[in-house]
Amino acid sequence: MKNIYPFLIGVLLISACSTQKFVSFETPKSETFSTDKLKSFLRSTPNPKVVLRVPNAQDNTTEEDGNTYIYNTIEKELLKNQFVVRDRALFNEVIKKSGDKVNYAELKSKTDTDIILELSNLQTDVEYRTNQYYTRKGKKSLFGKGDIVVKGAKVDFKVVLIIDNEYAGNYNFNYTPCLTGCEVYEAKRGPKFRISGKSAKQPYQVVSQRELESFFADATNRLIVALKQ
Question: Which DSSP category does 87 fall into?
Answer without folding.
Answer: P
